[in-house]
Design brief:
With about 160 residues, this protein is mostly helical. About 90% of the residues lie in helices and about 0% in strands.
């Protein structure tokens, strides 16, 4: 065989191989490459969207953290104000109660003083009657006693 015939045969075989590859193999490979390229571009786009969403979420989270922190500070301040108000109200109530207790104590003292004064007056009257009985040498009756008391009320000192 001649080298020319072999070369022509190889050229025809190569041409058939190229035609077969271009007709049947290349479209499949091209489709696989396009699908792969599309998946890669979609993945890159999704990654880019993910980065943007992450940035937005971080900004949103930071904003919410600042809002929550300011709300917490406001709530703490409001609680402190309310606590101060409650303490002031308790002090006012305690002062009112103290004044009430003191006034009740003063009234009780006045009443006990009045009772003691009446008891002292009765004892003085009894001592005076006993002295008068001894001086007069007779027993003083109830009518004498009332007359003595009426006469004593005229000369009694004014009460406080």
């Amino acid at each position: 065989m001649d080298i020319n015939a072999t070369l022509v045969g190889q050229m025809i075989t190569f041409a058939l191989f190229v035609w077969f590859t271009m007709k049947f193999v290349w479209p499949v490979l091209e489709k696989i490459l396009k699908d792969r390229q599309q998946k890669i571009s979609e993945g890159l786009a999704a990654a880019e969207r993910g980065h943007k969403e992450l940035e937005i979420a971080q900004k949103y989270a930071i904003q919410h953290i600042h809002e929550a922190r300011s709300k917490a500070v406001d709530a703490i301040e409001q609680a402190k104000k309310q606590a101060a108000f409650i303490i002031e109200q308790a002090k006012i109530e305690a002062l009112k109660e103290r004044e009430q207790i003191v006034s009740l104590g003063h009234e009780e003292i006045k009443q006990e003083r009045r009772v003691a004064k009446e008891q002292l007056q009765n004892e003085v009257v009894n001592i005076a009657i006993a002295s008068a009985e001894k001086l007069l040498g007779r027993v003083i009756t109830e009518a004498d006693h009332k007359a003595f008391l009426n006469a004593e009320t005229k000369f009694r000192a004014p009460e406080e």
